[in-house]
User: Fold Methyltransferase type 11 from Truepera radiovictrix.
Amino acid sequence: MSEKRFRGAADRLRRPERLALLEPARVCAHLLGSLRAPSGAPSVLDIGTGTGVFAEAFAAAGASVTGVDLNPDFLALAAAHVPAATFVRAAGEALPFGAARFDLAFLGHVLHESDAPEAMLAEAARVAREVAVLEWPYRDEAQGPPLAHRLSEAALEAASARAALAVVERLELQHMRLYRLRHAGP
Assistant:
């Protein structure tokens, strides 16, 4: 298990001040508003769902949501907050889903926790038509993980390229950075 994984109390993940930093409704509205999905409810995989903050926002916006996380306590809380979603215990680097099963794979504040971000991105690309990554900016600040655990934009782009993904959009939020990735190729 990675030393970078969040080990704090679950209630910290849903504190109002943290939710204000994350802007889940804005993130989900932006991603779903420009998602190239077939007709019907878009399917979203929330990788590293934690207590389901983003799963809840995606579901509220009309998406069919599946969340994965390694922490069974977090998954139980996520299921309590988002009963319409499906939650599965799994690592982002080894997803138990078939190819192109989802319209969108969302990695909210989880890629920096992985010892193998390239593998996590490759798995996201395998199971989804589009990938989105929400990460902390690469700067030293009081909120979030220490700088040594954060991903620089160059590191994220390099890992994406190695996973056959291209960064096609960057959105600077008030406190975060949102990246939209699509399959690279001809």
About this structure: The chain has a mean pLDDT of 87. The first strand starts at residue 43 and ends at 47. DSSP finds six helices and seven strands in the chain.
